[in-house]
Known about the structure:
Blueprint: H1 9-25, H2 32-127, H3 135-161, H4 166-198
Amino acid sequence: xxxxxxxxxxTLIGLDALSKVSTQLGLRKYNWSSYQTALSRDTMTLMNLExxxxxxxxxxxxxxxxxxxxxxxxxxxxxxxxxxxxxxxEKEKKMVxxxxxxxxxxxxQTRLQTKQYETATEKAKTRIDDATVTNIRLLEYQTVExxxxxxxxxxxxxxxxxxxxxxxxANIRMQEKMDIMTNLExxxxxxxxxxxxxxx
Length: 200
C-alpha cells in the first residue's frame, strides 16, 4: 500500500487539489470520466446562466430605452401644458377685457334706453288723458325694457364662461405618461435584482 511518504511533494499537492475539486463538484468517484461529466454539467449550467444574463441585459436595455422615450414624451407634454395654460391666460385676459368693454357699452346703452323711456313716458303723459295712462301700462313697458337689458347681460356672461377644455386633456395625457414611466422604473428595478441574484 502506498503512503504519503512514498509520494513526491508535487504529487501530493496535485492529489490534494483534485480532492478539493472533487468535493466541490460533488463527486463520489474519482475516475477521469466522472470529472469530465461534472465539468460538462457545470459548463452547461454556466453557459445557460450566461445566456440568461444576456437576455436580461437586453431586456434591461430595452426598458431603459423606453423609459427615456417616456420621459421625453412627458417633458413634451409638460411644455405643451404650460403653453396651453399661458395661451388660456392670455385668452381669458382678452375675454375679460372684451367683457368689460361690452359691459360698459351695455351700461351706456341701458342709460340711453332709460332716458328715452323716461322721455317717452313724460310725452305720453302730456299727450293723452291721465285716465288712459295707467300704472299697469307703465309697469308692462318697464318690464319689457328690463327683460331686454337682462338678456344682453346674460349673453355677455355666456361668452365669458365659455372656456375650452384643452388643459383638461393635457393633464390626463401627462398623468398617463407618468404612470407608464413609474411602471417601467419598477420593472427595471426587479430585473436588476434578478441579474444580481443570477451572478451569485
